[in-house]
Amino acid sequence: MQIAVVGSGTMGHGIAEVAAMAGMEVKLIDISWDILNKAKERMYDSLKRLHERGTIKETPDSVLSRVEMSTSYEIARQSDFAIEAVPEILDLKRKVFQELDKVVPKDSILATNTSSIPISDIGEITSRKERVIGMHFFNPPPLMKLVEVIPSKYTDPDVTNFTVDLAKKMGKTPVRLRVEVPGFVSNRIFLRLLQEACREVESREATVEEVDSSARNKLKLPMGVFELADYVGLDVVVDLWKVIVERGGTDVKCSSYKEKVERKELGVKSGKGFYAYPSPGKYSKVQLPPESKVPPERIISLAVNEGAWLIENNIVNAQEIDTVMKLGFNFPKGLLEMADEIGLDKILNQLREISDMGYQAYLPNPVLVKMVSSGEIGVRSGKGFYVYK
Ligand code: CAA
């Protein structure tokens, strides 16, 4: 199996590494040798860590012997599958897809690792829109087990099945969306966490550190919400927010992320965002106060409401949402499992309190309202998103 990866940045080099670790032949394409050489160093560094920890038996050099790099698309002439991972600019993605469409064999599949741009919009530019699909990895790809598989309205079901199998061959757990929605499952929920975190800070309910302390110390998330935004890249956060809201997702007034991007403080990649990092591109866990007054149910309330929306619209079910959050964001428990433990009545109270302040996005979803009004409030009542014996 030969895989072409276009774009060797944060995600692209990680996807290439994952494919090579799975024994696949990889063709990695980018616009300059400087960028490609940097990507090779990053793959080597990551593979070395995985080898030293015993996660992989093969040496980094042996894995990397399967990766060929080039600034030309010509090396993808024989590829069975291509994955694009260039910046989130629709015109740029379309250009990449036009190039791939010319070079890659006609029966091969073209996938995009976009975080939020509709797959249909990208596929339409090619002569094979039924062979174009979303294959969404999580940062860092070598560690995160999830791959979201997103068929567009044109995608052939065989292409979806092939992509699901490919994700498994790469050692990942695929979650397949039934219908394409902007931001997919992961980033629709991530956006809601970002929005609530921002609302709390901008309305002076809490500080950035207090929100993050509650997320890490009470909810036991691996990173605080602002810390995760820094890790993902604040430019990426602003882009995915814009794409989802422009396509119908409800907005919440917030300027914090945009202001950081305007000041070129992009998070880990630039060395500074909401927090300071040792050097550009180098993450180290941020220091947070051990105590926080922020109720954990407040942090996840809007995200749980989004989960209810995804269920209502039959995009995915509760287990699939929780798989996304556990394997894509390393949550210790699923989002909806947490909601069941906290109590859906408490989540609903948070949503009502905040929507009463005038925030449209917090209007409780009918699925949630119905569950609570019929006494399904989670673990305490024996039934919520899940059934408890
Ligand atoms: N390759 C190999 N190993 C790596 C690595 C990489 N790229 N990155 C980190 N590691 C290793 C470290 O070397 C370390 O190994 P040891 O335990 O052997 O020392 C281990 O992973 C833990 O790393 P750290 O000590 O640096 O920090 P940590 O304990 O906080 O773990 C983390 C880091 C795994 C990233 C963890 O914080 C985490 O799970 N965070 C959440 C990440 C997340 O949510 N990602 C999804 C973002 S959303 C997205 O990507 C999609 C989108 O469209 C926006």
What key phrases describe this protein's structure?
389 residues; alpha/beta; N-(1-d-carboxylethyl)-l-norvaline Dehydrogenase, domain 2; 3 domains; 16 helices; binds acetoacetyl-coenzyme A; 3HC_DH_C; oxidoreductase
Oligomer: single chain
Which residues form runs of ≥5 with pLDDT under 50? none
The average pLDDT is: 97
How many domain regions? 3
Topology as a string of helices (H) and strands (E): EHEHHEEHEHEEHEHHHHHHHHHH
Rg (C-alpha, Å): 21 Å
Describe this structure in words.
- This protein has three domains: 2-176, Rossmann fold (3-Layer(aba) Sandwich); 186-211 and 221-270, N-(1-d-carboxylethyl)-l-norvaline Dehydrogenase, domain 2; 296-381, Orthogonal Bundle (N-(1-d-carboxylethyl)-l-norvaline Dehydrogenase, domain 2).
- Helix content is 47%, strand content 10%.
- The chain contains 16 helices and eight strands.
- The longest helix is centred in the first third of the chain and has 20 residues, at 33-52.
- The radius of gyration is 21 Å and the shape is globular.
- Bound molecules: acetoacetyl-coenzyme A.
- Acetoacetyl-coenzyme A binds next to helix 2, helix 7 and helix 9.
- Keywords: Oxidoreductase.
- Residues 183-277, 298-388 form the 3-hydroxyacyl-CoA dehydrogenase C-terminal domain.
